[in-house]
Amino acid sequence: MVDIDAPGIVLFDMDSTLITIECIDELAALVGKKQQVSAVTEAAMRGELDFAESLRARVKLLAGVHERQLQQLLEPIPFSVGAQALIAWFQQRGWRTALVSGGFTWFSGQVAEALKLDAHKANQLQWQQHCLTGTVAEPIVDGQSKADYLHTLAQRWQLPMSNTIAVGDGANDKAMLQAAGLGIAYCAKPALQEVADWCIQEPDLMQLANYLETMKSRTSETH
């Protein structure tokens, strides 16, 4: 069990975890292609498609979207219930907080800044004259690179993997949850719930803080 009184790292997925939307689906809505893109996103999140291939195909449909249109999606940032409170709870305990996303740095940068996260990593959309080209920079942040990023952060901050927590909702979060000391599935697809150490079924991230407090008091009772 992780020790919340010792320094650690909590790493979150972004879309449908820290925030309530799937950014790529909402971007597609701006060009009238939400249905097409959402269907691909759903299949990828269930683990039925190769994530990198599905991402390239979805981004291709976004060619021509102007940067001004993207900003509409984050005014205000649609945080999940409890997201800000949970991040603050970890930060008060001296934990490092970070996000890693198969989504895009354009969004993750703003989310990370608003939450005062220590680090963030996501895919980079490519632009020409403030419009999306329909391409994404390689290499793509997929499930394995999410797990690798957790290892990278643990090395950077010299913290044990046993005191890391990963929180996500889709199949591409599997490797990350399995790599962490504690893997949390948040309102997740069945593929992820199967590998999680604990599942949050209600849309309220503060349930994780309650769970950790409960585990801590149980541990102290048995000692």
Describe this structure in words.
α9 links the parallel β7 (182-186) and β8. By secondary structure, the protein is of the alpha/beta class. The chain contains 10 helices and 8 strands. The longest helix has 16 residues, at 207-222. It has helices spanning 23-30, 34-45, 51-60, 67-72, 83-92, 105-115, 143-156, 174-179, 190-193, 207-222; strands spanning 9-12, 96-104, 119-123, 125-128, 131-136, 164-168, 182-186, 198-200. The chain has a 6-stranded parallel beta sheet with strand order 3-2-1-6-7-8. A two-stranded antiparallel sheet has the order 4-5. It has a single domain, classed as Rossmann fold (3-Layer(aba) Sandwich), CATH 3.40.50.1000.
At the first level of CATH, the class is Alpha Beta
Distance between the termini: 14 Å
CATH architecture: 3-Layer(aba) Sandwich
SSE run: EHHHHHEHEEEHEHEHEH
| Oligomer status | single chain
Structural class: alpha/beta
CATH-level-4 superfamily name: HAD superfamily/HAD-like
Basic shape = elongated
Please count the helical segments. Answer: 10
**Strand element count:** 8
Name the helicity range. Answer: 40-55%
The share of residues in extended strands comes to: 15-25%
